[in-house]
Amino acid sequence: xxxxxxxxxxxxxxxxxxxxxxxxxxxxxxxxxxxxxxxxxxxxxxxxxxxxxxxxxxxxxxxxxxxxxxxxxxxxxxxxxxxxxxxxxxxxxxxxxxxxxxxxxxxxxxxxxxxxxxxxxxxxxxxxxxxxxxxxxxxxxxxxxxxxxxxxxxxxxxxxxxxxxxxxxxxxxxxxxxxxxxxxxxxxxxxxxxxxxxxxxxxxxxxxxxxxxxxxxxxxxxxxxxxxxxxxxxxxxxxxxxxxxxxxxxxxxxxxxxxxxxxxxxxxxxxxxxxxxxxxxxxxxxxxxxxxxxxxxxxxxxxxxxxxxxxxxxxxxxxxxxxxxxxxxxxxxxxxxxxxxxxxxxxxxxxxxxxxxxxxxxxxxxxxx
Length: 369
Fold this sequence. Notes:
single chain; alpha+beta; eleven-stranded mixed sheet; 9 helices; extended
């Protein structure tokens, strides 16, 4: 019998397919048992964040267990560290410094660290006369039709800043007020703005022209928040007419130095130490915390000092004077929004720096001051 080549090809194809489809014989140890199919098994992901759990009660329960586990790990590390210190003593490795947003910040290219060029520039800039002993004269005004709450804040600022003069805004523009103040030998202008009867903005403009460039400025705008007047501060003191000392901390970049010198130029630089008053501008993560304190020395009673000397004759005696701080107020926070060359001119003025959040605040560890 002759088989055609086409039929032979079909027979060969089906024979190979039957061989491929034929199941593999089960192992004799698996009699009556169904083998486990491991081909489609998926590894279950371990979620530390329970946000994927839709049930609120279960989610809060899982998060509580996560916090307990985290606290347990910390306590175990603490005990292990204590045992290591007991065993090794002074040879124990030093304690690791905790990582914070401040000490892990991304270093800016304009960070200033004992740069002689920066020092030389600051000795000849527009604020140099005030650091040399010249007294500033500051005018403060408000937005048109201010609320009553704004005047309480102005009253506290007049206790904070010496030589601060208030003039009502009326219907004048900021440009007209700048010209008015410059003609009357004012060196700085402060304009307060508000929203919903709360102060939310502060503009500072330097009005005196520079000797070399014959240009006034700069002008800076700050967002104001967390205002607490003197009367609302518990156990506050009353400020006196003494010229306060200044404490500026955390201004590390070129922009920070310029903003710090602008803020420092509105205060006289001949402090009267007998008043024991200090004004602090503390920069932390580009927020400027403003505080006003008086440092107080409390002398211990003679009987307490004598008893302490008799009780610990071998030990060094404690000092008979104890220092503490008393807050005077006001208390508020500033956030720089823009810095402009010259006096106030939002239409035609050139900006030295503008805070653009979407472009600049790409990470939490990026700071500009």
